[in-house]
Amino acid sequence: GAGVSQSPSNKVTEKGKDVELRCDPISGHTALYWYRQSLGQGLEFLIYFQGNSAPDKSGLPSDRFSAERTGGSVSTLTIQRTQQEDSAVYLCASSFSYGNEQFFGPGTRLTVL
Amino acid sequence: GENVEQHPSTLSVQEGDSAVIKCTYSDSASNYFPWYKQELGKRPQLIIDIRSNVGEKKDQRIAVTLNKTAKHFSLHITETQPEDSAVYFCAADNNNDMRFGAGTRLTVKP
Questions:
Q1: Nearest-CA distance from A108 to chain B in Å?
Q2: What residue of A is the nearest CA neighbor of B32?
Q3: How many CB atoms lie under 10 A from the CB of residue A16?
Q4: Which candidate, B23, B27, B24, places its Cα nearest to that of B1?
Q5: pLDDT given at position A71
Q6: Distances from the Cα of B17 to the Cα of B20, B63, B83, angstroms
Q7: Is B45 on the interface with A (CB under 8 A)?
Q8: Is some CB atom of chain B closer than 8 A to the CB atom of A104?
Q9: Do A106 and B43 touch (CB under 8 A)?
Protein backbone atom coordinates (compact mmCIF):
# COMPACT_ATOMS: atom_id res chain seq x y z
CA GLY A 1 0.00 0.00 0.00
CA ALA A 2 0.95 3.66 -0.18
CA GLY A 3 3.41 4.88 2.39
CA VAL A 4 3.76 8.28 4.00
CA SER A 5 4.10 11.02 1.43
CA GLN A 6 5.33 14.57 1.85
CA SER A 7 5.25 17.61 -0.37
CA PRO A 8 7.08 19.44 -1.66
CA SER A 9 10.18 17.27 -1.79
CA ASN A 10 12.34 20.37 -2.04
CA LYS A 11 11.60 23.97 -1.13
CA VAL A 12 13.90 26.92 -1.58
CA THR A 13 12.68 30.16 -0.08
CA GLU A 14 13.94 33.56 0.85
CA LYS A 15 14.48 34.62 4.41
CA GLY A 16 11.35 36.15 5.86
CA LYS A 17 8.90 34.22 3.68
CA ASP A 18 6.35 31.76 5.04
CA VAL A 19 6.40 28.10 3.99
CA GLU A 20 3.91 25.30 4.35
CA LEU A 21 4.94 21.66 4.37
CA ARG A 22 2.45 18.88 3.87
CA CYS A 23 2.31 15.30 5.13
CA ASP A 24 -0.06 12.55 4.01
CA PRO A 25 0.09 9.69 6.51
CA ILE A 26 -0.63 6.05 5.84
CA SER A 27 -4.38 5.56 5.67
CA GLY A 28 -5.77 4.48 9.03
CA HIS A 29 -2.81 5.70 11.05
CA THR A 30 -4.08 7.85 13.90
CA ALA A 31 -0.72 9.17 15.07
CA LEU A 32 1.39 11.56 13.04
CA TYR A 33 4.79 13.01 13.92
CA TRP A 34 6.98 15.83 12.65
CA TYR A 35 10.78 15.82 12.96
CA ARG A 36 13.57 18.05 11.78
CA GLN A 37 16.94 16.75 10.65
CA SER A 38 19.77 19.17 10.00
CA LEU A 39 22.57 18.06 7.67
CA GLY A 40 24.45 15.15 9.19
CA GLN A 41 22.61 15.53 12.47
CA GLY A 42 20.12 13.51 14.46
CA LEU A 43 16.36 13.68 14.46
CA GLU A 44 14.77 16.50 16.42
CA PHE A 45 11.22 15.81 17.56
CA LEU A 46 8.89 18.73 16.85
CA ILE A 47 5.31 17.66 17.51
CA TYR A 48 2.93 14.74 17.26
CA PHE A 49 -0.79 14.37 16.67
CA GLN A 50 -3.09 11.72 18.02
CA GLY A 51 -6.09 12.20 15.78
CA ASN A 52 -6.40 15.92 15.26
CA SER A 53 -5.04 16.80 18.66
CA ALA A 54 -1.47 17.78 19.51
CA PRO A 55 -1.06 17.13 23.26
CA ASP A 56 2.32 18.84 23.55
CA LYS A 57 3.61 21.66 21.38
CA SER A 58 6.69 22.42 23.44
CA GLY A 59 8.99 20.73 20.92
CA LEU A 60 8.33 23.38 18.30
CA PRO A 61 11.53 25.49 18.03
CA SER A 62 9.80 28.88 18.19
CA ASP A 63 6.43 30.55 17.85
CA ARG A 64 7.11 30.90 14.12
CA PHE A 65 6.37 27.18 13.83
CA SER A 66 2.85 25.82 13.88
CA ALA A 67 1.22 22.58 12.82
CA GLU A 68 -2.27 21.39 12.30
CA ARG A 69 -4.05 18.25 11.31
CA THR A 70 -7.59 18.10 10.07
CA GLY A 71 -9.85 15.16 9.45
CA GLY A 72 -7.42 12.87 11.22
CA SER A 73 -5.35 12.63 8.06
CA VAL A 74 -3.28 15.30 6.31
CA SER A 75 -1.06 17.53 8.40
CA THR A 76 0.66 20.78 7.55
CA LEU A 77 3.69 22.29 9.22
CA THR A 78 3.90 26.04 8.73
CA ILE A 79 6.99 28.11 9.30
CA GLN A 80 6.45 31.85 9.33
CA ARG A 81 9.14 34.44 8.61
CA THR A 82 11.69 31.75 7.78
CA GLN A 83 15.26 32.13 8.97
CA GLN A 84 18.41 30.54 7.59
CA GLU A 85 18.68 28.28 10.63
CA ASP A 86 15.35 26.74 9.62
CA SER A 87 17.14 25.06 6.71
CA ALA A 88 16.88 21.31 7.25
CA VAL A 89 15.03 18.21 6.14
CA TYR A 90 11.59 18.03 7.70
CA LEU A 91 10.45 14.45 8.16
CA CYS A 92 6.95 13.27 8.84
CA ALA A 93 6.06 9.84 10.21
CA SER A 94 2.85 8.06 11.06
CA SER A 95 1.92 5.06 13.15
CA PHE A 96 -1.21 3.00 13.72
CA SER A 97 -1.50 4.66 17.12
CA TYR A 98 0.89 6.47 19.39
CA GLY A 99 3.74 4.23 20.57
CA ASN A 100 3.67 1.85 17.62
CA GLU A 101 6.17 1.53 14.79
CA GLN A 102 6.59 4.78 12.94
CA PHE A 103 6.84 4.87 9.17
CA PHE A 104 8.71 7.83 7.79
CA GLY A 105 8.00 9.89 4.72
CA PRO A 106 10.75 10.90 2.29
CA GLY A 107 11.08 14.34 3.85
CA THR A 108 10.99 17.91 2.60
CA ARG A 109 14.35 19.56 2.15
CA LEU A 110 13.93 23.22 3.08
CA THR A 111 16.59 25.73 2.11
CA VAL A 112 16.27 29.30 3.33
CA LEU A 113 18.48 31.71 1.45
CA GLY B 1 11.92 16.14 29.59
CA GLU B 2 13.68 13.16 28.14
CA ASN B 3 17.36 13.28 27.14
CA VAL B 4 18.98 10.51 25.11
CA GLU B 5 22.71 10.09 24.68
CA GLN B 6 24.21 7.72 22.13
CA HIS B 7 27.72 6.33 21.79
CA PRO B 8 29.87 5.99 19.83
CA SER B 9 29.25 8.65 17.20
CA THR B 10 31.21 6.63 14.65
CA LEU B 11 32.04 2.94 14.55
CA SER B 12 34.09 1.04 12.02
CA VAL B 13 34.21 -2.75 12.04
CA GLN B 14 35.47 -5.49 9.79
CA GLU B 15 32.90 -7.57 7.95
CA GLY B 16 31.85 -10.48 10.11
CA ASP B 17 32.65 -8.74 13.39
CA SER B 18 30.02 -7.58 15.88
CA ALA B 19 28.96 -3.98 16.44
CA VAL B 20 27.51 -2.55 19.65
CA ILE B 21 25.86 0.84 20.01
CA LYS B 22 24.82 2.12 23.42
CA CYS B 23 22.24 4.66 24.54
CA THR B 24 21.25 6.13 27.87
CA TYR B 25 18.05 7.94 28.72
CA SER B 26 17.04 10.19 31.57
CA ASP B 27 13.28 9.86 32.01
CA SER B 28 12.33 6.76 34.00
CA ALA B 29 8.81 7.06 32.53
CA SER B 30 10.11 6.13 29.08
CA ASN B 31 8.71 2.76 28.08
CA TYR B 32 9.35 2.31 24.38
CA PHE B 33 12.78 2.17 22.77
CA PRO B 34 13.03 1.83 18.99
CA TRP B 35 16.14 1.70 16.85
CA TYR B 36 16.20 3.20 13.36
CA LYS B 37 18.58 2.68 10.48
CA GLN B 38 19.09 5.51 8.04
CA GLU B 39 21.03 4.88 4.87
CA LEU B 40 22.59 7.83 3.10
CA GLY B 41 19.93 10.06 1.59
CA LYS B 42 17.06 7.83 2.70
CA ARG B 43 14.40 7.99 5.38
CA PRO B 44 14.86 6.29 8.77
CA GLN B 45 13.46 2.78 9.02
CA LEU B 46 12.69 0.85 12.16
CA ILE B 47 14.92 -2.20 12.58
CA ILE B 48 14.00 -3.35 16.08
CA ASP B 49 12.24 -2.04 19.15
CA ILE B 50 11.82 -3.02 22.78
CA ARG B 51 9.32 -2.12 25.46
CA SER B 52 10.09 -1.60 29.12
CA ASN B 53 8.55 -4.88 30.23
CA VAL B 54 11.17 -6.84 28.27
CA GLY B 55 14.91 -7.07 28.91
CA GLU B 56 16.08 -8.41 25.59
CA LYS B 57 14.77 -8.93 22.08
CA LYS B 58 16.41 -10.60 19.13
CA ASP B 59 15.68 -10.63 15.41
CA GLN B 60 18.17 -12.66 13.39
CA ARG B 61 21.49 -10.79 13.53
CA ILE B 62 20.10 -7.87 15.53
CA ALA B 63 19.42 -7.79 19.25
CA VAL B 64 18.53 -5.07 21.70
CA THR B 65 18.98 -5.17 25.47
CA LEU B 66 17.39 -2.88 28.01
CA ASN B 67 18.48 -2.17 31.58
CA LYS B 68 15.71 -0.13 33.18
CA THR B 69 17.53 0.31 36.46
CA ALA B 70 20.55 1.83 34.81
CA LYS B 71 18.43 3.51 32.12
CA HIS B 72 20.45 2.25 29.22
CA PHE B 73 19.80 0.14 26.17
CA SER B 74 22.06 -1.26 23.50
CA LEU B 75 21.91 -2.46 19.92
CA HIS B 76 23.97 -5.50 18.98
CA ILE B 77 24.61 -6.48 15.38
CA THR B 78 26.42 -9.77 14.83
CA GLU B 79 28.13 -11.04 11.68
CA THR B 80 28.12 -7.56 10.21
CA GLN B 81 27.84 -7.12 6.46
CA PRO B 82 28.72 -4.14 4.24
CA GLU B 83 25.00 -3.44 3.75
CA ASP B 84 24.75 -2.79 7.50
CA SER B 85 26.70 0.43 6.89
CA ALA B 86 24.39 3.31 7.79
CA VAL B 87 23.58 5.75 10.56
CA TYR B 88 21.73 4.15 13.47
CA PHE B 89 19.52 6.14 15.82
CA CYS B 90 18.19 5.05 19.18
CA ALA B 91 15.12 6.69 20.66
CA ALA B 92 13.17 6.77 23.89
CA ASP B 93 9.47 7.47 24.16
CA ASN B 94 7.92 8.66 27.46
CA ASN B 95 4.34 8.71 26.14
CA ASN B 96 4.68 12.40 25.49
CA ASP B 97 7.35 12.68 22.88
CA MET B 98 10.06 10.67 21.17
CA ARG B 99 13.66 11.74 21.77
CA PHE B 100 16.38 10.49 19.48
CA GLY B 101 20.05 9.98 20.11
CA ALA B 102 22.50 11.87 17.92
CA GLY B 103 23.19 8.81 15.79
CA THR B 104 26.06 6.38 15.18
CA ARG B 105 27.64 6.15 11.77
CA LEU B 106 28.52 2.48 11.30
CA THR B 107 30.94 1.49 8.58
CA VAL B 108 31.45 -2.18 7.82
CA LYS B 109 34.63 -2.76 5.86
CA PRO B 110 34.66 -5.72 3.46
A1: 11
A2: A99
A3: 10
A4: B27
A5: 86
A6: 10, 14, 13
A7: yes
A8: yes
A9: yes
Residues A36 and A64: their CA atoms lie apart, in Å, by: 15
Cis omega (within 30 of 0) for bond into B8: yes
Is B77 in the A-facing interface, judged by CB distances under 8 Å?
Answer: no
pLDDT digits (tens, 9 = 90+) for A76-112: 999 999 999 999 999 999 999 888 889 999 999 999 9
Distance CA A21, CA B60 (A): 38
| Residues 6 or more apart whose Cβ sits within 8 Å of residue B85 | B39, B106, B107, B108
| A101 touching B (Cβ < 8 Å) | yes
Query: Is the distance from CB of B17 to CB of B85 less than 8 angstroms?
Result: no
Q: Check if the beta carbon of residue A70 is closer than 8 Å to that of residue A54.
A: no
pLDDT for position B41? 83
pLDDT band at A1 (very low <50, low <70, confident <90, very high): low
**Closest Cβ opposite residue B89 in set A43, A99, A103:** A43
